[in-house]
Amino acid sequence: MDMLLSIRVELSRTPLATALVYLPWNAAIHAVLATERETDVLAYTNGRGSRGKLNKVVLAYSGGLDTSVIVPWLRENYGCDVVCFTADVGQGEKELEGLEAKAKASGACELVVKDLKEEFVRDFIFPCLRAGAVYERKYLLGTSMARPVIAKAMVDVAKEVGADAVSHGCTGKGNDQVRFELAFFALNPELNVVAPWREWDIRGREDAIEYARKHNVPVPVTKKSIYSRDRNLWHLSHEGDILEDPAKEPKKDMYMMSVDPQDAPDQPEYIVIGIVSGLPVSVNGKKLSPASLLAELNQIGGKHGIGRIDMVENRLVGMKSRGVYETPGGTILFTAVRELESLTLDRETIQVKDSLALKYAELVYAGRWFDPLRESLDAFMEKITSTTTGSVTLKLYKGSVNVTSRSSPYSLYREDISSFESSDIYNHADAAGFIKLYGLPTRVRAMGEKGVY
């Protein structure tokens, strides 16, 4: 049985002449626009669209204005069925409310929602954490890590529903278009990719609203945020409005995951992070699943104003952009893992790991998650942190995270060696010969400069 679509038909300019009619999805929709007094006939059939023919498209769907408009645009331009897909990566329950009704009202034949929180943290966030991947000294890659897990799920859904294409609502200026499409290419190169923002004539919010009105798509009535935000279990990003001027300070009411450090509790809080092979497993002795552990640390860290970053970064597409990020739980975990490594890794290993971490971060930022190079680096990181096991005690206080204790059964620290007291293992007199050999290049250069031969 065909699903029914509720549409408004304006019979005249007066609101009293408005009726609700119900038509099957594959019927032609006739809407007389009250303001233009013209008939807009949309043949929502399985025929060829104005730009070609696709059978079925899986659309990354949020329920906002842009993706709501993309649904009828795909049907009109490609003559296809549209399956909306929403990934739950921890953006919050409110973001998922009413999505099915919105998707179907826009013309979608189906909405698929998948809970990816555990997979997101376990298979994407934790490997980056273990690698110490930080982009341009500050960014903890919150959005960058979320895109490949969403794209992977979209490819899976496309196979399940028999779709021959996938689509996203990323603009032509951002990084996300690259991240999604590289993942699609890597996981199923036979899928067609449709990026409406690179094809259509819509150039802004007003154009989108007008398109929605003409195509009888319910426009979200919620007040549009002055910021462009992306939220998941790892972080919340803010862009736009006054942030577009790097000289302006963010407004206090912009933040949503963390309190202002000035308003944080006046008493510090101590927490203990348990780590096994470079990955966190417990908080204060309580073992938790990856997603549950991160959620708890977000709550604790947010209460103390932890994890606020304001930075100007270099986008993959070439331009600079200014963004503000809130990553309370992630900041705590990065501090804990790095501090435990100070006990378990030797100098040469730390230096090599840090150098490769930069490359790892660049690959993730650039959307190359499924590249063999990223996977090979991950194998190295897994091997090198196999002994990074132990616990770290942290002190949280008004936006700061400080280490107060660290311990590991694989610690390379030896008090009997490091102590200033003499020991059988380290003889102070041995340092003289070492210094002479280590400083030989310096001594030879100085002799040449002074003419001493």
UniProtKB/TrEMBL annotation:
A GO cellular component entry from the record: cytoplasm
Alphabetical list of InterPro entries matching this protein: Arginosuc_syn_C, Arginosuc_syn_N, Arginosuc_synth, Arginosuc_synth_CS, Arginosuc_synth_type_1_subfam, AS_cat/multimer_dom_body, Rossmann-like_a/b/a_fold
PROSITE patterns registered for this protein in UniProt: ARGININOSUCCIN_SYN_1, ARGININOSUCCIN_SYN_2
Pathway the protein contributes to: Amino-acid biosynthesis; L-arginine biosynthesis; L-arginine from L-ornithine and carbamoyl phosphate: step 2/3
Positions of the Arginosuccinate synthase C-terminal domain: 227-444
Record-annotated membrane-spanning stretches: none
Domain of life: Eukaryota
GO MF assignments: argininosuccinate synthase activity; ATP binding
Pfam families given in the database record: Arginosuc_syn_C (PF20979), Arginosuc_synth (PF00764)
BP GO terms, sorted: argininosuccinate metabolic process; L-arginine biosynthetic process; urea cycle
Protein keywords: Amino-acid biosynthesis, Arginine biosynthesis, ATP-binding, Ligase, Nucleotide-binding
Enzyme Commission code: 6.3.4.5
Enzyme class: ligase
Span of domain Arginosuccinate synthase-like N-terminal: 56-218
Subunit structure: Homotetramer.
Alphabetized PANTHER family for the sequence: ARGININOSUCCINATE SYNTHASE (PTHR11587:SF2)
NCBIfam families: argG, PRK00509.1
Protein name, UniProt field: argininosuccinate synthase
Organism: Dillenia turbinata
Taxonomic path: Eukaryota, Viridiplantae, Streptophyta, Embryophyta, Tracheophyta
